[in-house]
């Protein structure tokens, strides 16, 4: 069982920046595939970014060039740095961990971008 706790969400003006974090439990965090998803009101949850144990990263086209995912294995933490935020980035952001064939979700953190 992996527990994920997100933090760092909040309210920011369009064009601003925000960083969300996710701390994971477990002694083998460095082997996890970690990711971020988001869900806006009335919409389905969508992929935002992911990072493999190797450091390879993947991004949705809508955030490429603006968002950066990173991880600190010593702190069991994955980050999502969000720059040049747009109102359409407003959503609940969920951390996701994949390990040993299982997937785990955090409780989510709200990010609101005002125009």
Task: Give structural notes.
The termini are far apart. Strands 2, 4, 5, 6, 9, 10 and 11 form a seven-stranded mixed sheet that branches. A four-stranded antiparallel sheet has the order 1-3-8-7, with no helix packed on it. The protein is globular, with a radius of gyration of 13 Å. 0% of the residues lie in helices and 54% in strands. The chain is mostly beta strands.
Short structural description:
This protein is an all-beta fold.
- What ranges have pLDDT less than 50 throughout 5 or more consecutive residues? none
Which radius of gyration do the C-alpha atoms yield? 13 Å
Q: What kind of sheet is the major sheet?
A: 7 strands, mixed
**Helical content (DSSP H or I, runs of 4+):** under 10%
Put simply, the count of helices is 0
Mean pLDDT across residues: 96
From the N-terminal CA to the C-terminal CA, the straight-line distance is 40 Å
Strand content: over 45%
Question: Would you report the number of β strands?
Answer: 11
Secondary-structure-based class equals mainly beta
Outline, from the CA principal axes? globular
Order of helices and strands: EEEEEEEEEEE
